[in-house]
UniProtKB/TrEMBL annotation:
Residue ranges the record marks as coiled coil: 187-214
Domain Rad50/SbcC-type AAA residues, every copy: 9-269
Record region (Disordered): 268-288
Biased composition (Polar residues): 270-285
Lineage top rank: taxon: Bacteria
Keyword vocabulary terms for this entry: Coiled coil
SUPFAM superfamilies: P-loop containing nucleoside triphosphate hydrolases, Rad50 coiled-coil Zn hook
Name of the molecule in the record: AAA family ATPase
C-alpha cells in the first residue's frame, strides 16, 4: 500500500464544519489554511476518523467524545475519503448521528495503528509527544517499546525472553509454563485414580457373583435345566423369555372377565324379571295408530316441504327429527336470505353508480375540452414578453423606440411609454389567466382519471341485470319457504312427539319379552363355561351364586400360581440386567485402567523431557539477552538518534543542546532508554529536553522526533499529516522546516498534508512548496465559516510551469 495517495474528502456536519464541503487532496503537498475555529483540525480529524474509525486525541480527552462529533444543529452527517492506488480507487466512510459514529469502511488494525502513531500528528499531541516517550518506562505495551519492537524486529527475541524468564525458578515454571503444573498434577491424579479404579473393579466382581447365585436359585425354583454362569447368560435369558406362563395367565384373565360378564347378565335378567311387568299391547297399538293418523294427514306435505328445502340448500344435510328439521331449516334459509339480500342491494348500487360515473366523466371531458380551447387562444410566452417590456420602460425617455430607433409619434398620437405600459398590463392579465387555466385543467384531468379507474373497477365486478333478477327471484322463493315452514312448526313438533311415543312403546314390548328367556340361556352359558375351564357342569339343584363362587375360587388359585412364576421370571430378568450392567461397567473400568496406566507413563516421560527442555531454555535465554541488548544499543545509537539529531540540527542550527535517547551500556533484559540532551561540543549528557530546551526548540524536538520515528520504520502509508506544527517557531525554524517538508515530499515520496492558521506563513509555505518539476503538484485549501452560513472550502491547484522569462532575456 506504499503507492496509495489521498484523492478527495467529503465532510458533512462534522464538529465545527457546518453543511457539506469537498476538499481535493490528490497532490504531493496539500496546504490547508483557515482562521482559528474555521475547521482545520476538524478536517484533519475527519481524515483520521474515516481511516481508523476513531479520533485518538479526542478519545483521551473524553471517553464519550463520539456523541459530540455531529454538528450541534444537524441531525446526521457523514465523512467520505477517497484514495487512489495506481488506477484503483478505494473509499473509506463513516456516518454520524446523535448517538455516535458508524464506521462503514476503514483500514485494518495494523494500518490504522501506523496512521495514528507514525503518519498523523494532531496539534494536541505535539506538546505531549516528548512527555509520552519520557514517561513510557520499560513496559512491553508502552509506545516506545512497541515502536522499538517494530523498528528493530525484536518481536521474536522479546517473545523468547518473556517466555524463558520463568524457567529460572521451578515454581514460576509450574505457574506459567503451559502443561508443567498440569502434568505433575495429572501424574498425582492418575496415581489416586488407578487405586480407585482397582477398588471399583473388585466391588463389581462381588456384585456379579452374588447376582449369579440368586439367579441359580430362581432357575431351580422354575425347574430350568440350564446351568447359570457368565458364559451361559444368553441361554438363561432364552429360558426366562419363554411366554408359556404369560400366555396361560392371559387366558385365565380372559376367563375371569368372561365369568364376571356372565354373572352380570344373570343379575340383570333376575332383576328385570322380578321388578318389571310386561307393557300392555293396547297402549303400544294406540301410540302406533295416533302416529299413523298424523302421517296420513301431514306426511305428504312434510315430504314435499323437505324436498323443497333440500333443493334450495343442496350442500346442507337436514336432521331426520321433525322438530330439529324445522329449526335447522329456518336458520339456514334465513342465512341464505340475508346473503342474497346483500348481494342484490350491492349489485343495484353498483349499476346506479356506473351510470352516474359515466355522466360525471362526460361532464369532465367537456370541461377539459373547453379549457384546452381557451388555452390554445392564449400565448404561452405572454408572461415572458410582459417581463421584457416592463424592463424596457426604464429605458424610455421620449417617444424614440430604444429597439428600432423609430419615433412613435409617427404612428400614434399617444406617447410611447403609455403604449408600452398598456401592453404590459394586457400581457400580465393573459399570463395570470394562463396559470389559472393550467391549474384547473390539472384538477379536471385528475378527476377524469379517477372516474376512469372507478368505471373500470365497477365494470369488472358488477352483475348483469338477468343475474340480479335471478337472485331476486331466489330470495322471494326462500322467503315464501320460510313462511311455509313457520306455519308447519307446531304440526311438525306434534308429529315428532307421536313418532317418539310409537318407537318407545315398541321398544318396551320387545325388551320385556326378551328378558323372560334370558335366565334359561344364562344357566346354559354358565354350565358350558364350567366345562370349558376343566370342571363339572352345574347340577340341577345348584344355584347361580354357588356355581359362580366355585368357579371363581378355581380361577383365583390358578392365577395365584401363575403370578408367582411370572414374578420369579421378572426377578430373574432383573438379575440378568444387573449382571450384564455390572459386567459392562467392569469392562469399562478395565479400559479406564489400561488408558490411565498409559497416561501415567506418558506424564512421567513428559516430566523428564520437560526438565531437559528447561535446561536448554535457560541456555537460550542467556544468549537472547546478549543479542537483544547489542541490537538495541546499535540501532538506537546508529540509527534513530542519528536521524533525530540530523533533523533537529537542520531546524535549530543555533541550539547547542541536542535531544537523544540514552541506552545503558550493560546488558539489559528489557528496553530502558531515557530522554536526555547532548551538547554539540561533547562532554557529559545534560538533563531532559524539558529542562534544557526553550519552548520553541522543545516544540521543534517533538516535531523532529515524530518525523524521525516516521522515517525509521518501513513506509506502510506514504502520508504525513501535520496539524499546525509551527506555532512556536521563529522565521529561521520555519525556513528550515519548509526545506525539510520539500525534501520529504520531493525526494522521499511522502504525500504531505499540513494545516496552518497564520496567513503570512501560509503564503510563505505556498511559495516554498510550489511545484519544482513536471510531476510535482501543490493544492491549497482555504476554510472559512460565518455565524449563519455553511462552511466553505476553496481549493487552488498549482502545477509546474517552466520559467521562460530568463530564456527571453538571454
Amino acid at each position: 500500500m506504499s503507492d496509495l495517495i489521498l484523492k478527495s474528502l467529503d465532510v458533512t456536519n462534522f464538529r465545527s464544519i457546518r453543511g457539506h464541503i469537498h476538499a481535493p487532496l490528490d497532490a504531493k503537498v496539500v496546504l490547508l489554511h483557515g482562521e482559528n475555529g474555521a475547521g482545520k483540525t476538524s478536517l484533519l480529524s475527519a481524515i483520521e476518523l474515516a481511516l481508523t474509525g476513531g479520533v485518538q486525541s479526542l478519545a483521551s480527552a473524553d471517553p464519550e467524545y463520539e456523541k459530540q462529533l455531529l454538528f450541534r444543529s444537524a441531525s446526521e452527517g457523514s465523512i467520505l475519503l477517497r484514495t487512489l492506488e495506481e488506477k484503483f480507487e478505494r473509499t473509506f466512510k463513516a456516518n454520524l448521528n446523535a448517538n455516535g459514529v458508524e464506521s462503514v469502511d476503514a483500514l485494518d488494525e495494523k494500518e490504522a495503528a501506523f496512521f495514528r502513531e507514525r503518519a498523523f500528528l494532531p496539534q494536541s499531541l505535539l506538546g505531549q509527544l516528548l512527555q509520552i516517550y519520557q514517561d513510557a518506562g520499560n513496559d512491553a505495551s508502552s509506545p516506545l517499546a512497541q515502536f522499538v519492537g517494530k523498528l528493530l524486529g525484536l518481536d521474536r527475541l522479546d517473545a523468547l525472553e518473556a517466555g524463558l524468564k520463568p524457567l529460572v525458578d521451578v515454581r514460576n515454571v509450574r505457574k506459567i509454563v503451559d502443561g508443567w503444573q498440569a502434568t505433575e498434577n495429572e501424574k498425582t491424579r492418575l496415581d489416586r485414580l488407578l487405586a480407585d479404579e482397582q477398588q471399583r473393579r473388585d466391588s463389581l466382581n462381588e456384585q456379579i457373583q452374588s447376582a449369579l447365585l440368586e439367579l441359580t436359585n430362581l432357575c431351580s425354583s422354575l425347574e430350568f435345566s440350564v446351568k447359570v454362569g457368565e458364559d451361559t447368560l444368553d441361554e438363561v435369558t432364552e429360558a426366562l423369555g419363554k411366554t408359556s406362563d404369560s400366555d396361560a395367565f392371559a387366558q385365565l384373565t380372559d376367563q375371569q372377565r368372561r365369568l364376571a360378564s356372565i354373572n352380570r347378565e344373570i343379575d340383570e335378567a333376575q332383576s328385570a324379571t322380578g321388578s318389571e311387568a310386561l307393557p300392555s299391547p293396547t297402549n303400544a297399538e294406540d301410540a302406533s295408530k295416533e302416529f299413523a293418523r298424523w302421517d296420513a294427514e301431514y306426511g305428504p306435505r312434510v315430504t314435499s316441504l323437505r324436498g323443497t328445502v333440500e333443493s334450495m340448500l343442496p350442500n346442507i344435510s337436514m336432521p331426520s327429527d321433525l322438530s330439529q328439521f324445522a329449526d335447522e331449516a329456518v336458520k339456514r334459509l334465513r342465512t341464505e336470505q340475508n346473503q342474497l339480500t346483500g348481494r342484490v342491494s350491492q349489485a343495484r348500487a353498483e349499476i346506479a353508480r356506473y351510470a352516474t360515473a359515466q355522466d360525471e366523466r362526460d361532464v369532465a371531458l367537456r370541461q377539459r375540452d373547453t379549457i384546452d380551447e381557451e388555452l390554445a387562444r392564449l400565448s404561452s410566452s405572454a408572461g415572458s414578453l410582459g417581463s421584457v417590456l416592463a424592463e424596457m420602460t426604464s429605458f424610455l425617455v421620449d417617444d424614440i423606440c430604444p429597439v428600432c430607433d423609430r419615433n412613435f409619434s409617427e404612428v400614434s398620437k399617444g406617447s410611447l411609454a403609455e403604449h408600452v405600459h398598456s401592453k404590459v398590463r394586457a400581457l400580465s392579465a393573459s399570463a395570470e389567466r394562463l396559470l389559472t387555466l393550467g391549474r384547473t385543467r390539472g384538477e379536471v384531468q385528475v378527476t377524469i382519471e379517477r372516474l376512469d379507474r372507478e368505471i373500470e373497477s365497477i365494470a369488472a365486478r358488477r352483475l348483469e341485470e338477468n343475474v340480479v333478477a335471478e337472485l331476486d327471484r331466489r330470495r322471494a322463493s326462500i322467503e315464501a319457504l320460510i313462511v311455509d315452514i313457520e306455519d308447519m312448526i307446531e304440526t311438525l313438533q306434534a308429529g315428532a312427539r307421536l313418532r317418539a311415543a310409537d318407537i318407545a312403546a315398541r321398544r318396551a314390548v320387545s325388551g320385556s319379552q326378551s328378558r323372560h328367556v334370558s335366565l334359561a340361556a344364562a344357566r346354559e352359558t354358565l354350565s358350558a363355561f364350567a366345562v370349558s375351564i376343566g370342571t363339572t357342569a352345574l347340577d340341577e339343584g345348584e344355584s347361580f351364586q354357588a356355581a359362580a363362587s366355585r368357579l371363581e375360587e378355581l380361577l383365583s388359585a390358578q392365577v395365584a400360581r401363575l403370578e408367582g412364576r411370572l414374578s420369579m421370571r421378572r426377578s430373574g430378568a432383573t438379575h440378568l440386567d444387573n449382571i450384564r450392567s455390572a459386567m459392562t461397567r467392569r469392562q469399562g473400568v478395565d479400559t479406564e485402567i489400561s488408558s490411565d496406566s498409559a497416561s501415567w507413563k506418558s506424564a512421567d516421560l513428559a516430566l523428564e523431557q520437560a526438565q531437559g527442555l528447561r535446561d536448554q531454555g535457560l541456555a537460550i535465554r542467556s544468549a537472547v539477552d546478549k543479542i537483544r541488548s547489542a541490537i538495541i544499543r546499535r540501532e538506537f545509537n546508529d540509527r534513530l538518534n542519528r536521524l533525530w539529531r540530523d533533523l533537529f540540527v537542520r531546524l535549530a542550527p543555533s541550539e547547542p543542546f541536542v535531544p537523544a535517547f540514552r541506552i545503558p551500556q550493560s546488558s539489559t533484559q528489557r528496553l530502558q532508554p531515557k530522554l536526555i540532551t547532548e551538547h554539540r561540543d561533547g562532554g557529559e549528557a545534560g538533563g531532559t529536553p524539558g529542562a534544557m530546551l526553550s519552548a520553541g526548540n522543545l516544540n521543534t524536538a517533538a516535531l523532529t522526533l515524530f518525523i524521525a520515528l516516521h522515517l525509521s520504520v518501513p513506509k506502510e502509508l506514504p502520508w504525513l499529516v501535520l496539524d499546525d506544527p509551527v506555532q512556536s517557531m521563529d522565521d529561521v525554524h520555519i525556513a528550515h522546516f519548509a526545506a525539510l517538508l520539500r525534501t520529504l515530499s520531493k525526494e522521499h515520496g511522502r504525500q504531505v498534508v499540513i494545516a496552518v492558521h497564520d496567513r503570512q506563513l501560509f503564503e510563505y509555505l505556498k511559495l516554498e512548496l510550489s511545484p519544482a518539476f513536471p510531476d510535482d503538484s501543490l493544492l491549497t485549501l482555504e476554510l472559512s465559516r460565518g455565524p449563519r452560513r455553511d462552511s466553505v472550502c476553496l481549493s487552488t491547484r498549482l502545477s509546474y510551469k517552466e520559467e521562460t522569462a530568463l530564456f527571453v532575456a538571454a
